[in-house]
Amino acid sequence: MGNPIPIGLENAEVVAALNKAHNDYTAAEIDTALAGKSDIVILTPLQKVQQLLISASNKEKIINYIVTGDSTRENTYNEMNQYYVGQFAKINVTVDYDSDSGNSARNWLLQDVTSSPTSSITHALSLVSGTGESSILEFSMGLNDLTVSASGSTDPAVVKQRIKDSILALLSNRPDLTIVLVTPVYTANSTYNVQLQTMYYELAAEHNLHLVDVLDIMGLVHGNTDFYQDSVHPNKYGSRRLLNVIMDSLIPSSISHLVSLEEVPAPLIPSVITELATRPINSSNLVAGISSGYWQNADGSPTALSTWRRFDEISVIPAETLNITHQGDQFNCIFMDAVGDFIEGIPSSTTSSQYRSVLVPANAATARINLSSDGATYDASSDVPTIFYNNPAMLHGYWQNASGAYTTYELWRSLAEISIEPNFVLKIQHQGDLHTAIFMDAEGSYISYKLTEIVSGELYRTVTIPPGSAKVRINVSTDSVFYDSLGDAPSVKYLVPPITTIPTVNDINEGVSISLPNFISNEILVSSKLNSSDFDSDKIAQDGRLDALESAVLALQNP
What we know:
The protein folds into four domains: 1-42, no CATH class; 45-263, 3-Layer(aba) Sandwich (Rossmann fold), CATH 3.40.50.1110; 271-277 and 393-495, Jelly Rolls (Sandwich), CATH 2.60.120; 290-389, no CATH class. The chain is 26% helix and 21% strand. The protein has 16 helices and 29 strands.
């Protein structure tokens, strides 16, 4: 069974849920079809989207998300395509692009491939399998229709009809397609902004579609060159904000933790840290325990022998490097695959630090590591062995505050040099005792050093990047033994203004002063069943359509 009807759904929306074939069923026809079917529930447009996204995240269905738009989705400087693909991949949704710079609803609908060679109604339909039950299509066009005479009439009523015809063309060919309308972005022309926002709200209500209104939120950064390329087009950071607003509207809370929303390239530490932050690398000491006996080098099998010591078996990540410290006399690491079969034994190698290292084979799942052939001596050593994943972005030394020069020193820890962009604020989080950031220009010349500042109530500290800076060198700790034992995963990000969300109906009821269309539904859900009193008879039934209505009712019983 689907989800219950939200408070505030108008009768017209209930009727629309049964009218996806646009047959204009009467209340009487619907009343007859619903007779005896008290278990029927209606999914709101947003719930339909979220149901598909959850099924993709759980790998229950293969879902694709189609992006139909203009230059705000496809341009050489906005990187929107890559961001869509990367973000939706986190919940197992594939992205198909049906966007082109200069596109308009008119050209898209008329398949004017000269104006929009990679975006048209035919191209969009080719990306939708079957009747569309496993596809979501985002539609956002209209600005070029209003502003470019080559796109035909620029009259707002005509433009609205083009978008309406586009929606009908999609649904007539793919009746189960889920369409999401997204208002065009904020531009310097306030008249166009209001006209497009108004028609999108009207179209969403008329066709029972979910609407994402990005206008006001993008307006908060319009004119800011950090987010806009010009008066119309968001740049790569503005595009991130745009998609963040869209995904924030669509992604259900149950899977929202899988999608991190960053408006600028958040993890600035070299790529290895970006990867480590999402995996159990450096999270803790991997040592699970120490036992008497040893692992056979030839096959990895355990042998009981009271005079030997060995590590208990640990799970490992393939192709990562392990750093191992202990005071024993054995250094062989035996690797096994996921079903416990022997792969190979590899001796750990000495390094310039106190660690010995070994590269985990590509098909390994666990490691069996011997420790000492003299258990009595080892037990008396009070050794505290460690096994950590290697972190090449963590340096064994420090950056000099006065010049930025690097000094190797085993007792200290610092981060490898990071590329940055000037005039942003960095937020830096780690568990070390050092809080200095040294800034260098693009040629590697010293600019200045700064102490990071405490932020009340937060774990991170902040520092403003000086003008002309291109690199930052960050010191972390003066006590490597203690710091390494923490398994810390440092974080360096840009601090950006938070996304401001549009108030909900509940906010409005509590007195927030804002004007929103009255058909935005509440988020609170309650169980509700349909009955004849939910509908007003105002049309005469027409023959020949009741079979289709019955099918629609059955679909509601088994969504």
